[in-house]
Each structure stands twice: as structure tokens, then as C-alpha cells.
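Protein fold
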Amino acid sequence: MSAAHGGEHPRRSRSAPESPTPRARDLPGPRRGESLTAPAFRWLFQWPYRLVLAGLYRARLRAWHLTAFSAVAAAGVGALLLAGFYLAAGFALLGAGLLDLFDGALARLRGEDSPRGALLDSVVDRVADAIVFGTLFISEGLRGARLSAGLALGSLVVSLLVSHLRAQAEASGATMTEGMFQRLERVVVLFLGLTIPGALVPALALLTAMGALTVAQRLVTAWRRLPRTGSSSFSGSGVVTRERPSARPPSSPEHRSGSSP
């Protein structure tokens, strides 16, 4: 799930007036993304997206509600997969993906987005990936379907690597939004694989292959943006490198006396 929201309820004064309910046409559409399907998704679903977001706002739901529902839905997907109900698991997965799509948008609409919320959302997304692909691996393995079980495990590995590379690159000072195959694409492809007869193996093969390409894409991008040596901070115009302290002892006697051995 890509989205930030606050984990605490904001305190409101009893006398403070409620903010007016926004109209759907005044709400922002889906956020711009750099994955393969993001431009098409933004164009096709901009009005349904606004209508759903307005409905969630009017229902007085908070972003953390959607995050919690998404985690519960992921657990339900895992249970359905272990029970062999793949069709139901596919639709439950689609519901969980939609909840993850709107939690960040709802947080921003209510002014409740925060670094804590972003951290919680990211952790829940990784747990959901582990549950879905992990239970699919177990289910296929118990059925003796070694190919689909191996592909499910491969999909899990590359999905975690895609997220880890972004987190590590941004922790090192580089922006990282690129990624041809991200969470939206994974949910859609796996939904099709679970609901269309005979499509599971091709869907998992596509997830593994495109996930591996996205890992390579992000690794190359981060490698080019980060400096070779020293600490750095990344800005939109490039990498700014700060020099390390010299390893040679200063020539001044005062400095030599104060330096550590």
C-alpha cells in the first residue's frame, strides 16, 4: 500500500464548526504514478475514485480504519487460499487493494497524514504481501503444484525487494518513485490469476518476471543517484556531497592535543 495518515485521533474543540462536506468534483483524482498502468488508471477511474472518496468522507471514516480493514481483509484472503476458495480469495484481495488505495487519500483529505501513518501503512502493506503470497505458496505446495508454489514464493521475494529498495534509497538520501510494476499492478494481476481458470501460473510468472525487472530498475536508479563516497543529501537537481573529515591529523599543536587517539 503507497500512502500516509495519522495514527492518532485529532482533538477538536466542541465549539469548532465541522468542515463542510466536499463535493466529488472538488476532490483530487488518483495520485500520479510512474508504474505501467498508473496513467491509464488515473484517466479511467478519476470520477469513480472521487465519488468513493467523497462517500468515505461522508461516512466519517478515518484513514486508520481503512488500514485496519485492509489488514483484516488480507488475513481473510490468506484463510480463503488455504481453504482452496481461490475465486472468493481473488475478490477479497481486490477489496483489500481498494482499501489500501484510499487510506492515504482519505488521510490527506482530512489533514491527518503524518510520518507515523506512512510507517504504519507501509508495514501493513508488507504484512499483507507476506500473508497473501505466503499462504498461496503453502496452498499450492500442499496440492503438489510445485511450479505455481515456486512462482508464488518468487513473487513474494521480489515484491518485498521492490519496497525495500525504495525504503533504503530514500533512507540514503535519494528520491525513489520509479517502478514499472508496483502494488497496484500486483493486485490486479493476482486478482485475474485467482479468478480466471487456468490463469494462476501465467499470472504468477508475470508477477515474478516484472517484479524482478522493477527490482533491477530501482537498483540501477538508486545506484546512479547515490554518491560513491561520503555522506550525501539528494535534491531535485542532483546529489550534494558533504566532505568527510580528513583522516590526517591536523598540524596545529592545539588540534593535536584535542584529537582522539
Residues 115-142 form the longest helix (28 residues). The beta strands are 231-235, 238-242.
